[in-house]
């Protein structure tokens, strides 16, 4: 149980709703970061050195070296779904719980994926620019494509992929899916979704939405060779992890005209698990404003959803500090290897 005489220290690396500070503050000493910016890696290490609990977000990287500087740490609660930026084995070996949030991110991210595809297909950003530049009403320009009656491929048949498929069922589209994992995850199937292998999906699809997580098997899963098998003019949307797609290959295929457009909410430079990750989005992609549409990792950026995500992470921290199995645990730590908690 939490020792109130020696309140445990909980460090939050990024801004959270005030309610979260209140919930944790009733039982813990909270060290928060309520700015809009990420702390430097050195500052996170300094703050976490005496932490019992840690709430982390996508920009954070938690590896063995970091954890060795946190001898009191009992739980790392991720306010995230994909946790490729956290070393699970290092947490387990050091007796530290690792938790994540699963379902709460699915619907808002799926919704954004469909929005990005529509925005790309219908030239919404270019249309907005034209109106602001004084375009005098209707002209026979900016003709795009439609989702209705098209074939849409979904790469990644987990919760997010199935969530995207459910949202697309109203468009009377043919839905194809594949999953790079050896065994597809359990869960509710979408009746209208046909499972095929990746080569067939790419050859048949008018649009492809990437929903796959990042691991060794999905790094640059969509490389130049595979992307070249798409139909000429096909659209590509990435809401999974940036490095599942080879962004430089995308730039080349946009330049040649083989790809019709590329939209993304996730980018290779964000993937902290990759020591060779690029420093930024390829400049060529940034310059192709007429055929690209980018958002700054807004998948779960819905106020009500973010609050629930933070509540889940806060609850997991309190459960772990109480000696319980925390909600969303993704490991089974060796609790006997840690030092005794303070108090």
TrEMBL record:
It comes from the Bacteria. Residues 10-331 form the D-isomer specific 2-hydroxyacid dehydrogenase catalytic domain. Residues 114-299 form the D-isomer specific 2-hydroxyacid dehydrogenase NAD-binding domain. One of its GO terms (cellular component) is cytosol. Keywords: Oxidoreductase. It holds the Pfam family 2-Hacid_dh. SUPFAM superfamilies: Formate/glycerate dehydrogenase catalytic domain-like, NAD(P)-binding Rossmann-fold domains. Coiled coil: none annotated. Transmembrane segments: none annotated. GO terms for molecular function: glyoxylate reductase (NADPH) activity; hydroxypyruvate reductase (NADH) activity; NAD binding. Belongs to the D-isomer specific 2-hydroxyacid dehydrogenase family. This is Hydroxyacid dehydrogenase.
